[in-house]
Amino acid sequence: MGIEQKVAIITGASQGIGAALVQGFRDRNYRVVATARSIKPSGDDDVLAVPGDIADRATAERVVSQAVARFGRVDTLVNNAGIFVAKPFTQYTAEDYAAVMGTNVAGFFNITQLAIAEMEKQGSGHIVQITTTLVDHANSNVPSVLASLSKGGLNAATKSLAIEYAKRGIRVNAVAPGVIRSPMHPVSTHAELSALHPVGHMGEMSDIVDAVLYLEGASFVTGEILHVDGGQSAGH
Fold first, then answer.
1. Which of 84, 104, 144, 229 is the most exposed place for a label (fewest CB within 10 A)?
2. Which CATH class is domain 7-224?
């Protein structure tokens, strides 16, 4: 394998958008380190599956160290792992808070810190967070304070990191989706969820993959929060 073959780490990679991202990067001839709580070994020699809870720093350490040991480098990190709990604010429990902040914030912090340390060695890299359009477009029908607290923090951190590392060859961006058609949304909810978007339908997982891969190739784009939300952030 030539040194030019890049390596992407993708969190929350066992299903849904994460699994689609793994395939999207493989289609670009990237080698991929895929991590999730219950991810199965891959039959593809260029995909390394590392099981573990991303909220645990030991998982992040294992993912990055195995990426370097197996593939020799880390070029891209996609922080896709996330928990969304929609409840009225006063009904959130301490367990809800710990789970959301653990995965969405600590999970981001741990692996991003370690990945950037590797990227600095080669003077290049790209990090993408998957956040949510609800940060910029709150909806009383979708109570989501913990999502806004955690993913809004990631949007802010995206811009801060982009500026901190701009002259070191490391770009940092985010994709803020609307509701994406995936196994987590029962068919019975599709009409209601589609109506949330000005375009009248939900997004597809391929829309998020396309957005991430656009950012991956957009060498002059950093600090960007790219809304892939069917127009929600623009208004209604």
1. 84
2. alpha beta
